[in-house]
Description:
Blueprint: E1 20-24, H1 27-30, H2 43-48, H3 66-80, E2 84-88, H4 91-94, H5 104-119, E3 123-129, H6 135-138, H7 146-163, E4 169-174, H8 176-186, H9 197-219, E5 224-229, E6 234-236, H10 241-264, H11 273-280, H12 288-292, E7 298-302, E8 307-311, H13 321-324, E9 329-332, H14 349-361, E10 368-372, H15 390-408, E11 413-419, E12 438-440, E13 447-449, H16 451-470
Parallel strand pairs: 1-2, 1-11, 2-3, 3-4, 4-5, 5-7, 6-8, 7-10, 10-11
Antiparallel strand pairs: 8-9, 12-13
Helix pairs in contact: 3-5, 7-9, 8-9, 10-11, 14-15, 15-16
This protein binds beta-D-fucopyranose.
Beta-D-fucopyranose binds next to loops.
Amino acid sequence: xxxxxxxxxxxxxxxxxxxxxxxxxxxxxxxxxxxxxxxxxxxxxxxxxxxxxxxxxxxxxxxxxxxxxxxxxxxxxxxxxxxxxxxxxxxxxxxxxxxxxxxxxxxxxxxxxxxxxxxxxxxxxxxxxxxxxxxxxxxxxxxxxxxxxxxxxxxxxxxxxxxxxxxxxxxxxxxxxxxxxxxxxxxxxxxxxxxxxxxxxxxxxxxxxxxxxxxxxxxxxxxxxxxxxxxxxxxxxxxxxxxxxxxxxxxxxxxxxxxxxxxxxxxxxxxxxxxxxxxxxxxxxxxxxxxxxxxxxxxxxxxxxxxxxxxxxxxxxxxxxxxxxxxxxxxxxxxxxxxxxxxxxxxxxxxxxxxxxxxxxxxxxxxxxxxxxxxxxxxxxxxxxxxxxxxxxxxxxxxxxxxxxxxxxxxxxxxxxxxxxxxxxxxxxxxxxxxxxxxxxxxxxxxxxxxxxxxxxxxxxxxxxxxxxxxx
Length: 472
Ligand code: FCB
């Protein structure tokens, strides 16, 4: 695909008129300025500054320095011609300690960002929580305790009151699976805990936080309100009963913990210990399912790759971990396709399957937005000054075609945000993975649009021309 003859030609996918295109980022991954203008520390500051937690000890202290270069980044978005930009607010810029005194300079930063986006004709889509819990709240128990959900609702109210008149779309949480299970059970992400009940409590409190925030956002007159999940397209390694049982356990932990309470007003099926842990935990209070099940205007889906699972021996004797991370499942990789530098198999058809399956399972499914999709590649700036990321172009084209296929088959998908506008801090993997449409040199902080940036701009222009022509 990356031979000398240049980019593989892919026809632009035929998406419906009105389909919207965007690009996405998250605060800790791009902003830098970690201790400027009154920003308080978050769990990712603490985690990344703890030796051994991130690749090469990388931190988000500077990242892409977007805090100081946001005008340049907005110009890049304008050049791309996107309809929308998904970014996240750093909770600890607005409320340095998570609750209590408001930081006016933090509020002003996002005010400027939003106003400048609107002036560029780009609709802001705001994620309230992309994993960067104020450290002060973690010190009081973090997502293990209900007070954090209540604090989140107050933060949501503050943001909605200030920006609600200008923000098109609100995403309460990004991938709560990662916050709860990768952060509190696996420990690969901040706060780096390895607990069973702590992770289940976190999952429940994240869901409650979401529901409480939806109520605050609506009370403040927010327009479109939703949540972003990283639902997995799961396959079983074989039809053997053990593998099928492993598949069910993984479906509960990865998907149904979220989709059942959010979309069906109930906890997931009884097959997995995760369920009983969640449903019977002391953290549960009467009325919680009603809070969590507040109707959504849209559901955000982040998709990168499918996952195949097989039965595997438990790794620990800890009954608690067996509910939250050590669930007797191993991932296998039968896909036999190209893999990105993350080691993820490239399987666009699994995105079509995921969207259609969701549609079939949930009568209450609201319109879906793909809030992240993209690929990490081994990008370098060539002698001609360009980045020839032909594999990324193929990835994006094929996944947009997969979305178009799902729409043709009846799924209601309204928009797509490419991950990411910029190369950035890829969490525990530091700066070793490049997902951007724009290359960032981390020494000079120079931005260089890649070939995929031009390709995406061409796609958006062609889509508009084609659908405007056909609209009477
Ligand atoms: C998602 C995260 C996003 C980015 C991509 C690659 O899980 O939401 O911040 O790191 O993965």
